[in-house]
Amino acid sequence: MIYCVEDDTDIREIEIYTLRSLNFEVEGFSDGTSFFAAMEKNHPDLILLDVMLPDINGVEILKRLRRDPRTKKIPVIMATARGAEYERIGALDQGADDYLTKPFSMMEMAARVKAVLRRTADSREETLKIGDVSLCEDKHRVQVNGTTVELTFKEFELLALLMRHPSRVYSREMLLGKIWNLEYDGENRTVDVHIRTLRQKLGEAGSIVKTVRGLGYKIDQ
Known about the structure:
alpha/beta, 5-stranded parallel sheet, 4-stranded antiparallel sheet, 11 strands
């Protein structure tokens, strides 16, 4: 499913027509309000998002998507005005996967949509493996020696981050910011509690999660 968020009716309709002709399921929205209402019911595989919308700026929508753990990994292609370099830079800085400069051809749009979907699908399907622990982000599955381990969403996100960057030390402050979007106040024990329960659930394989005294946590290969 692809969501097209575009306030210009003509552009939105031709985007939808083009993508449907390529056998994509597509829904169109003229503003941010209707888009977020739809997001409460179903998450798409990709979002084609215009910057200039009548109610919520497209970059602000992107920020909200990237702040929400449920939507932060959905690929987004931004549509920006020709010559508005600050829009393109702002969109990429906020986590856009690609951008289109208006006016763009439908062939270019289709090619970029296919490329982003292909790239993100390849990334999600990759299985990370360290020691006896394997993690598949696409299937949201963790296994120890082939046996599935049930983790909470935050435990999974924490393990995935550490496994993506083995040997890199993450401080509590960094982990709170990346996983929980919280600021570290020096007293917050959220990270320590989740690390402890994560190790317990992984059993003997939990030894891959190392404490670096005075610094934070890392995973050893």
